[in-house]
Specification:
Chain B: Pfam families: Ni_hydr_CYTB. The complex is a heterodimer of chains A (256) and B (298). Chain A is of the alpha+beta class and 256 residues long. Chain A contains six helices and ten strands; from the N terminus they run αααββαββαββαββββ. With 298 residues, chain B is of the alpha+beta class. Helix content of chain B is 48%, strand content 11%. Chain B is built from nine helices and eight strands. Chain B has a four-stranded antiparallel sheet with strand order 2-3-4-5. A two-stranded antiparallel sheet of chain B has the order 1-8. In chain B, a hairpin with a 2-residue loop joins strand 4 (76-82) and strand 5 (85-88). In chain B, helix 1 (21-47) runs antiparallel to helix 2 and helix 8 (229-256) packs across helix 9 (259-267). Classes of the chains: A alpha+beta (256), B alpha+beta (298). The structure holds protoporphyrin IX containing FE (HEM).
């Protein structure tokens, strides 16, 4: 049935397969850290961004849910209680002294109080929050549509990104920040929310103001927003990759 | 048409052409992608080791969860819960690693890519491999249909269903077809490959896409098809386990039904038809190895 050469070849094949597997496993972690793989990963994420932008039109909306779908408690993640002194003082004063600064490449830089923001037209939406860890939570948000705010300050033509600077330093490290490009910033559901489930935004969820970018993952949606800056490029901010988690290996494109 | 003549009892093995170049290329690329996708997927799972059914996560009633708890003596135990059942999975799920350096993690380091806990890189591997896996799968499915191979090699013929019982019996006894009969997939093989190619593989892609918030905005029907993002995540996991199960059985059958011949056929395309064994007894029951008389269409 089996020729002797076959069994020799078979043994060789088995051994090579096993040795190959072990080498592969050990090699994978080294590979993961290599520059070449980092470049490949970045290219793959850029491809994902282009493909998803092609499929999802400018205006296509994230699903909105009914009040019955709202989760009993909205899970808070990341920083849930910033202990920076400046922030604590603002919180103790009920954020009356807090101002949202908007600057950078705009015609009319402004500093707006919470009350001023609340007099602007508001949008209320019940949406699903998807954490990069894998869980989802449904909540109702109310806030100012970011596009309205940007129109109010007059965005200059060179501006390509909106950067959100936050009050918190996650685990005492660098300041949290995030960025959106103009397309996502002007999406009708992209808003700066000051209310969750019909009440003032709790501190755990980002009081007094947090970003909602409903077609993106949770880490995009900066909490404790203090300052908005319009920039042509974000390479000079943080470690230059457009956000706190982006600086730590997560993709700038957070659509998946 | 047979390439090197027909296999007849009493003759040496006949080499036939079994797999086309594109099938072989797809097979091996897919093999690599599936390993990377599975292992990086388990790394991703570890970031939130619980699965739910529905639109969002009901944190206090997961369908499946893997964690670590202290037992009565204060020692760590790996606990896996499925529905209402609780399993002690210490050493593999929940808690694993060398005895002096136990680590609390859902899937053990040897099963994840990268090995250490590293969600961002797990996701990078997953999506990179996904970009090779999904387009290749789409191309291969089109190829199967257009080349007629789906119909010729995979769709069961009506008469095959009559032999289902025998085919199962032969499989359980690990008695594999020889001679002319080995030229084609048998019914069980056809059904399994169809389930994987038209079921699990497309499903794992679609449920994967459903977890993307941008895709949900682009294609809202994904959410309706799978009952919400968290259901999709659970289905994605079930598909992954299904593919792993297929892979293990596939591997075992490749080994016991002539590993060298099978591997060669998937590398060079050539497959040896070994002659049928002479009947064990002069008057063996004819049903043991029904002779294939029907004309073949290829
Ligand atoms: C192109 C195809 C695929 C896409 C687009 C995709 C997408 C995804 C996404 C977005 C996640 C993250 C879910 C989360 O946030 O927790 C994920 C997780 C995961 N993937 Fe995939 N995936 C694909 C193929 C596969 C394949 C082929 C396998 C297995 C063989 C697999 C196994 C897993 C596992 C085990 C997880 C962990 C969490 C879960 O069960 O959902 N994926 N995948």
């Amino acid at each position: 049935m089996t020729k002797p050469t076959d069994s020799g070849r078979r043994r060789f094949l088995t051994r090579s397969l096993m040795a190959g597997g072990a080498t592969l496993l050990a090699g994978c972690d080294a590979l993961t850290r290599s520059d070449a793989m980092s470049k490949l990963f970045d290219a793959s994420s850029a491809l994902t961004q282009q493909a998803q932008r092609l499929l999802a039109s400018r205006q296509s909306l994230a699903r909105e849910f009914t009040p019955a779908d709202i989760a009993p408690t909205f899970r808070a993640n990341g920083t849930t209680n910033p202990d920076e002194e400046d922030y604590r003082k603002l919180a103790e004063g009920g954020f009356r002294d807090w101002r949202l600064e908007i600057g950078g490449l705009v015609d009319k830089p402004q500093a707006l109080s919470l009350d001023e923001l609340k007099t602007m037209p508001a949008r209320t939406q019940i949406t699903r929050h998807d954490c990069v860890e894998g869980w989802s939570c449904i909540g109702q948000w109310k806030g100012v549509v970011l596009g309205d705010l940007l129109d109010r300050v007059g965005v200059r033509d060179q501006a390509r990104f909106v950067v959100f600077h936050c009050a918190d330093r996650y685990r005492g490290g660098d300041a949290y920040y995030e960025s959106l490009d103009m397309l996502e910033a002007y999406h009708p559901q992209t808003q700066l929310a000051y209310a969750l489930n019909g009440a003032d935004l709790p501190i755990a969820n980002g009081a007094p103001l947090r970003l909602r970018a409903e077609r993106q993952l949770g880490y995009k949606m900066a909490k404790y927003v203090m300052r908005i800056e319009l920039v042509e490029s974000f390479t000079h901010i943080g470690r230059g990759r457009g956000g706190y988690w982006e600086d730590r290996g997560y993709n700038w494109w957070a659509g998946i | 048409m047979p390439l090197f003549g027909k296999a007849r009892p009493g003759q040496a093995a006949t080499l036939i052409k079994r797999h086309t170049a594109f099938s072989r290329l797809w097979h091996w690329v897919n093999f690599a992608c599936l390993i990377i996708l599975l292992m990086s997927g388990l790394q991703i799972f570890n970031a939130h080791p619980a699965l739910y059914w529905g639109k969002d996560s009901h944190f206090d009633s997961p369908a499946l969860s893997i964690g670590a708890e202290r037992d009565a003596n204060g020692a760590w135990q790996g606990i896996t819960r499925i529905g209402g059942y609780r399993f002690d999975t210490t050493g593999v799920l929940g808690i694993s690693g060398p005895p002096d350096d136990l680590e609390r993690r859902a899937f053990p380091a040897w099963a994840t890519l990268p090995g250490p806990r590293w969600l961002s890189k797990g996701r990078q591997w997953h999506f990179l491999a996904g970009w090779i896996f999904a387009p290749m799968l789409t191309a291969y499915l089109f190829y199967l249909v257009i080349s007629g191979q789906l119909k010729r090699r995979l769709l069961p013929r009506r008469d095959e269903w009559r032999h289902l019982g025998e085919t199962i019996r032969d499989h359980v006894r690990l008695r594999f077809p020889r001679g002319e009969e080995a030229r084609h997939y048998n019914l069980l093989q056809k059904l399994t490959y169809l389930l994987v190619l038209l079921g699990l593989l497309p499903l794992v892609v679609l449920t994967g896409l459903t977890m993307s918030p941008t895709m949900d905005a682009a294609w809202p029907w994904l959410l309706d098809a799978f009952g919400g993002r968290q259901s999709a995540r659970t289905l994605h996991f079930i598909c992954a386990i299904g593919l792993l199960a297929f892979f293990l059985v596939h591997l075992a059958l490749v080994m016991v039904s002539g590993m060298f011949n099978n591997l060669r056929s998937m590398i060079t395309g050539r497959y040896a038809l070994h002659p049928e064994l002479p009947p064990a007894q002069p008057h063996a029951p004819s049903s043991a190895l029904p002779p294939q008389q029907e004309p073949r269409d290829d």
